[in-house]
Amino acid sequence: MTAQLAKLLAISSLLFSFGCHSTKQPKPPVAQENDRFTLFSTAVNDSFYIQTQMPIEYKDSTAKRYPVVVVLDANFHFPMLAASVRQYEKGGLLPPLILVGVGYKSFEAMDSLRTRDYLYPAALPSDELTTIGGGERFRQFIISELLPSIDSTFRTTQQNRSLLGHSFGGYFTLYSLLAQTTNRTGEFKNFVAASPSLWYHDFYLNQLPSKLTSLGRHDSTHIFMAVGGAENPIWDLKPVNDLTKKLKANNILVVKGGVYSQLEHMDTGQLSFLKGLQEFYR
Question: Mind listing the pLDDT tens digit for each residue in 218-235?
Answer without folding.
Answer: 568 999 999 999 999 999
